[in-house]
Amino acid sequence: MVLAKVVGTVVSTQKQPNMEGIKLLLLEKIDPVTIKGKNDFIVSLDTVGAGLGEIVFYASGSGARQTSETQGVPTDASIVAIVDSIVKDGVFTFQKK
Amino acid sequence: MVLAKVVGTVVSTQKQPNMEGIKLLLLEKIDPVTIKGKNDFIVSLDTVGAGLGEIVFYASGSGARQTSETQGVPTDASIVAIVDSIVKDGVFTFQKK
Amino acid sequence: MVLAKVVGTVVSTQKQPNMEGIKLLLLEKIDPVTIKGKNDFIVSLDTVGAGLGEIVFYASGSGARQTSETQGVPTDASIVAIVDSIVKDGVFTFQKK
Amino acid sequence: MVLAKVVGTVVSTQKQPNMEGIKLLLLEKIDPVTIKGKNDFIVSLDTVGAGLGEIVFYASGSGARQTSETQGVPTDASIVAIVDSIVKDGVFTFQKK
Amino acid sequence: MVLAKVVGTVVSTQKQPNMEGIKLLLLEKIDPVTIKGKNDFIVSLDTVGAGLGEIVFYASGSGARQTSETQGVPTDASIVAIVDSIVKDGVFTFQKK
Description:
97 residues; homopentamer; mainly beta; CATH 2.40.50.220
């Protein structure tokens, strides 16, 4: 899964019917050491109630549809977890406040 | 999903039979902040009636076939939404006119 | 799908049994604006009778197996269309002769 | 599969229910010749009891769910092996101590 | 499929049970024109008896599991053919000795 930050939202009224009611979030991939954005963005469905500014990870490909919220939905990216903390080599690089 | 702009069309008469009648659009991936093209193109099936110049996002991989229009079609990219607006960090970076 | 040019062939006698009888073509990905090769190559199965020098697009991933010719074959790339023309921003960038 | 080193852990309480109880590891992809990190990270599920500092390889995409531990879980990366040794051109580039 | 050269082996005792007995090879992706390595490596299962130094191509993603040897195995890359020859623009760039 890829670590990313929720940086915005995408609105669409003309879309595939089974996408109705699922939040579309704009994610920026992050470096898990510096927690800085990599200027690389994707649109992801949200399945865990992620909010603006939160660090999350998303499942890509068919993995994005292995949830009750996204089964059968034409998605290739779904947030599946909100991150509490990241530890690299014994040191916290991120802790949710 | 990946944000892109519809920049053209691709025509093919000699193709897989179940691609008949589905529009083939040329997409250029965009930066969601500047909305500028990234000079990176793909051919996508259209499932939502997208038109030239519109900002869309497409599902890639097997996600591209989770629609009634594209089920069983040998595609790896299908437009699944026309974008109305993109907001990053509380600021509109795109609003459909 | 990705636009590419048929630039050669690959021959293999020792291969997975259900690949027998399917042509293996060498493709070079192209820029759809200049129609020039990008020096990025893949091996693809052919399902539409594509010939040397033709511009095609191929489906990648599981999409490559959604054809009667390639179902169940261990492929991740299959040519699914021969391109007649590409139009970008109202201008032909390619027309088959 | 991709070779990587286990460099840390990721903790999440708000996540997809069937991810409960599966360890989330932070992996850094490595060069298999120098065994050095490539500063390219992913979050992976662990299915083989991998520990910090170990060299592993993970399966990506739907391959990540072909294990009894990860079937139906929304993952796109799962560690499937702990590496004992790597030999390139007849020379060991890595041997587990 | 991607062209690559068999450059080594990877040994693992602690791995997913259904990987037992399948050879794990280290592959280096090659340029099909110069046949030189691109310093880009992956670990692949072997399904065709490929040996050190041979030029092969592998199927990635779910395509890697469309063989009797790899069905249900958590792999994302399997060698599916040993290459005899590559011809680009009418000229042999590779011929197996």
